[in-house]
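To fix ideas, we quote verbatim a fold written out as tokens:
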Amino acid sequence: MKRIITILLVGFCATSFAQNKKMIKAERLFNPDLRYLYIGVDNSISLANNNDTNVFLSITEGKCWKGRRENGKDYYDIFVSSRTNKDPIKILRKTPTDTILLDTANFAVLRVADPTAIFGNLVDSMATMDALMLQNEIKVFLPCYYKLGFRIIDFTLTVTRVDGSSESIKSLGSLLNYEQMQLIKSLKPGDTLYIEDIKGTSPDSCSRLLATIKIRVKLR
């Protein structure tokens, strides 16, 4: 009789999970019901309305870690390394004698989008010399809620002057070197500054070539 009751309870639990297809939440996305996993980052996933400590998540073609936040809420970090990953996330329940598959959830695997390169704190295509001299780094903006750790590998600073002449200097890393700073100091109103060949690397270990930044020097 006890065995029959146990089977019925497990069957009821599995049915309730199957009926609620939105119970797995992708926490760090703007809309947590969106089913995306990003390559090369820890994707934070949680089980909604689940108080059963025997229920857990698993994925075969990837890695899954369970953690607990300060508020006592459990979460899972899921890591995938390829867009060819088609393996669903499994919702499992551990029993005294077995592990039972309750449900599965499919997630689209996406490549992290290319970030937008920004020269320091400038966002406009025109700037005064005073504003230009305050900048010393190429930064990146990512329209994503994950901390992705994108870094700049190298870039080239090129200036073209109103007389038609031009000069280019390359730098490693994200910071301007001394020669580039001196080149910026020599600019006059009407000259144009290009930051080009901006190369970076993302958490999926793929090199990215970012769009060129173009800034024209204007009068005070």
About this structure: Residues 2-19 form the longest helix (18 residues). The longest strand covers residues 151-160. Helices lie at 2-19, 129-133, 178-185. The CA atoms of residues 12 and 191 lie 72 Å apart.
